[in-house]
Design goal:
eight-stranded parallel beta barrel, 11 strands, TIM Barrel, 42% helix
Length: 353
C-alpha cells in the first residue's frame, strides 16, 4: 500500500509552565501558532480543559479568535465539549468565528468533561453531568449542525415554531468533526457522515478498532462524501534521544499526577524535573504514556509519526507538542515545542519557512 502524502497539524493544550503567567502562556501559544503556519502545518487546534493548573486551553472559541487575528491561513478551532453548553451557544460562537475568518474554522465536538466533577457541575450552571449525556449527545450534535447552517433551523417551543439563526446573513458554516477515543464516537461520526478525529494523545487503546468501525459504517452526507480521519499524538523531539527524554519528563510528571486524580500543578521546568523521581504509584501510567508518546531525536520521531500514519492508513497526524522548557527560556515563548514542530516539518518534507 502506497502511503499518501502526510499532512501535519497541531493540537495545543497550552502547557502552563511554573515560571509563566497566564499572559505568558497565551503569548507563547500565539507564537507557536504563527510558527506552525510558517512551517506549513495545516491546522492549529485547541484542547478544552477546565480548572487544571498545568493546562491553559479552556474556551476554544475565545482563544481561536485571538489566534485567527495573528495568523493568515492556518485553520483554527478545535475541541468543544458539548455537554457543558447549549447547542445554540456553540453554534453562535462557531458562526461568529467563521464570519471573521471564513473558510479557516473547524469545530471539533467531544462529549467528555475536561474537568473534575465540581467544575463540570459549575460549568453547567448547577446541572448534573452524567445523567443524560450519552442519550442526549447525538441529538445535541444534530441541533448544533443545523443551527450553524446559514439558513438556521426551527425550534418548537410553547406550541409554535421559532426560526433560529446563529448569526444574521451567514454565508458559510464551518465543518464539524466528531472527537473521540472509542468505538461509540466512531459510530456517531459514521452515522452522521462527519469527519472523525481520534485522540491518540489521550489513549492508544482501541484506535484501530475505532477507525475501522468508522470507515465500515460511514454514510455519505451533505457534509462529507467519504470517510475522513485524523489522529492526534503527543510528540516531543530534541537534538538527541537523551535530550528529548529530558524535555518529556516535565509533562510525564504532570500527567501522571493528573491521571491519578492528584492535585494538579503547572508544568515543572526541565531543571526541576531532572531531580524529581517518578513516584512508584505512577509506574503503570508512565509505562502507558511511553507506549504511545513519540519521543526522540528528529529522525526517530519523524519515522514513528510516519509509521503511525501508515499503520492506521491516515493522511493527517495532529501533533501535540508538550516539550518542557529550561529556566533561561523566555516565558513568552516555547522554544522546545517549536523545535519539535520544526524538526518534523523538515524531516517529513512540509517545511517552507
Amino acid at each position: 500500500m502506497k502511503q499518501k502524502p502526510l499532512t501535519l497539524s497541531v493540537l495545543d493544550i497550552g502547557p502552563a509552565r511554573a515560571n509563566q503567567t497566564a499572559s505568558d502562556v497565551f503569548a507563547s501559544m500565539i507564537d507557536l501558532a504563527r510558527h506552525a503556519e510558517r512551517l506549513g502545518y495545516h491546522r492549529y487546534w485547541l484542547a478544552e480543559h477546565h480548572n487544571v493548573a498545568g493546562v491553559a486551553a479552556s474556551h476554544t472559541s475565545v482563544f481561536a479568535a485571538a489566534v485567527g487575528a495573528q495568523t493568515e491561513s492556518i485553520r483554527i478551532g478545535g475541541c468543544v465539549l458539548l455537554p457543558h453548553y447549549s447547542p445554540l451557544l456553540v453554534a453562535e460562537q462557531a458562526s461568529l468565528l467563521e464570519a471573521c475568518y471564513p473558510g479557516r474554522v473547524d469545530v471539533g465536538i467531544g462529549r467528555s468533561t475536561g474537568a473534575d466533577r465540581i467544575t463540570s457541575f459549575l460549568l453547567r450552571g448547577g446541572r448534573e453531568l452524567r445523567t443524560e449525556i450519552d442519550a442526549s449527545h447525538p441529538q445535541a450534535l444534530g441541533s448544533l449542525i443545523t443551527l450553524m447552517q446559514p439558513d438556521g433551523g426551527l425550534a418548537r417551543l410553547f406550541g409554535r415554531d421559532y426560526e433560529i439563526r446563529s448569526i444574521p446573513n451567514g454565508s458559510s458554516a464551518p465543518p464539524v468533526w466528531v472527537l473521540g477515543t472509542s468505538v461509540p464516537s466512531a459510530r456517531l461520526a459514521a452515522e452522521l457522515g462527519l469527519p472523525y478525529a481520534f485522540g491518540y494523545h489521550i489513549t492508544g487503546e482501541g484506535v484501530k478498532s475505532a477507525i475501522d468501525t468508522y470507515r465500515a459504517l460511514f454514510k455519505p452526507s451533505q457534509y462529507l462524501a467519504k470517510p475522513k480521519v485524523l489522529v492526534s499524538a503527543i510528540v516531543i523531539s530534541g537534538p538527541s534521544d537523551e535530550e528529548a527524554q529530558r524535555l518529556a519528563k516535565p509533562q510525564l510528571l504532570l500527567m501522571s499526577a493528573f491521571r491519578s486524580g492528584e492535585p494538579s500543578r503547572p508544568q515543572d521546568l526541565v531543571e526541576a524535573a531532572d531531580v524529581m523521581p517518578f513516584a512508584d504509584r505512577h509506574a503503570g501510567l508512565v509505562k502507558m504514556f511511553r507506549r504511545t508518546w513519540i519521543i526522540g531525536n528528529p529522525g526517530s520521531v519523524a519515522e514513528q509519526v510516519m509509521q503511525l500514519a501508515i499503520s492506521l492508513d491516515v493522511d493527517e497526524i495532529m501533533i501535540n507538542p508538550v516539550a518542557g522548557a529550561y529556566a533561561p527560556d523566555d516565558p513568552r515563548r516555547a522554544p522546545n515545542r517549536a523545535y519539535t514542530l520544526t524538526a518534523l516539518a523538515q524531516a517529513l518534507g512540509i517545511y517552507r519557512a
